[in-house]
Prior knowledge:
The chain is an alpha+beta fold. Among the domains are: 52-129, Immunoglobulin-like (Sandwich), CATH 2.60.40; 136-265, Chondroitinase Ac, Chain A, domain 3 (Sandwich), CATH 2.60.220; 279-370, Immunoglobulin-like (Sandwich). Helices cover 21% and strands 41% of the residues. It has helices spanning 2-32, 261-265, 270-276, 375-386, 403-440, and strands spanning 52-60, 65-69, 72-73, 78-82, 86-93, 97-104, 113-116, 121-129, 136-139, 142-145, 151-153, 164-168, 177-179, 183-187, 192-202, 218-223, 228-231, 234-237, 242-249, 252-258, 283-291, 294-296, 301-309, 315-324, 327-337, 340-348, 354-360, 363-370. Strand 24 and strand 25 (327-337) form a beta hairpin.
Amino acid sequence: MAGSFRRTALHSTLILCALILTSALLPGAVGAACYNGRCPTGEYDDSDRRVNVNITLSVSPEGSGHIEVNGKELEDDVYVALQGDVVKLEAVPERGYEFAGWTGSFASSANPWETPFYNHKTLTANFVPERERLSAREVKGLSVEIPEDTEALNADGSELDDVSIKVVKSHDIPDGMIVVSRVYDVAPNGATFDPPIMLSIEYDQSSVPAGVDEDEMALAWFDEAAGAWALLDSEVDEGDGIVSAEVSHFSEFCVLSPVPAAAAATGASPAAFAAATATSPGFSLSGLAVEPSSAAAGQPVTVSLKASYAGPDADGITEVMLRVDGVVVDQQEVIVPAGDSTRVTFNYTPSAEGAHEIDVNGLQGGLSVTPAAPVALSQAVARAQADDSLHLPIPELPSLSLSWLRGWGTIGCVAAGAVLLLLLLSLPLLRRRILRYRYDI
């Protein structure tokens, strides 16, 4: 009885130990039963199926930058990732370069760039020399400031990437104003800015006439649609001789000054005063000559003067205008190298009689015009001047008195020819007769 009880207790103990051991080993057995990534529990495990993929990375041009993978700089040319992993790539440019895009197995302009990789790939981070920033543009006498947060667009709506500035000749100046600076063409035309940018132009303080309040000067732009200059709300720095204003587009710009009250008091028109002070800074005009100073109406006249330039630029440019009695009759754009001079010549043909005032940018001279010579006399004088020698005409014989002579002369020539022909034909016969006569005696 006691032995039977001990066997029963031993069997029970063995069964309990087997249950405990089975429960301990069951998770591993279940996991071992997973096949092809699927488990009896319904979970999916593909860690044993994922393979390595190689991402070959390079930089172009060499030395222009480096690549960071998942926040760390790439040390080797190949980065190894598990298939399906999302990898973060970032192209970091060196000083003087900027990122231009990814090329290779596929292209992208994103930087940084996150994408999954399922097979081997080859990628290149491309860099280009950094474009010059548009934050400032400056030439002699003009500066443009374009803050980095400004929306600068071309006329077609694309991003503005270049600015050019050149000096040009002035358009017609509005009445009552004169130009006291160079005229600049700032391009490209149609470029716009939001918000407006600051543009500054240096003016020639020595060219500002006495009596002008410099605070009244203003920056102006040329409105091509209206064909006129438009004044801008400007700030004048008299100490440095600079006028500044905000602009929202590019055009031609200059500094305009009002005509001083002293000029109005002398009776000079604004246009005449503007012409007298239109010479660009650094230029000097001298030696006005009118040749001949007295001419007949319709006779060409030459007006000449000397233009010299001693400004800071390599070449100076100015507008020279010929005015007769206050009216512009001709104008020229004159370009002179620094430290040099040239002769400027105008050809003018007066038509009105009387005394006339000649004015070239403030230099004045006189011209007296006499009545035009009669047409016949003027033609004779012109013909005499054109001929180098004197030719005397030979009078002709009357044609009627010699008509009979010309008629008989023709008949005589015909008759003489006929007689001569008969003589030639009769010579052999005459010779035989003479010989017969001599030998028959």
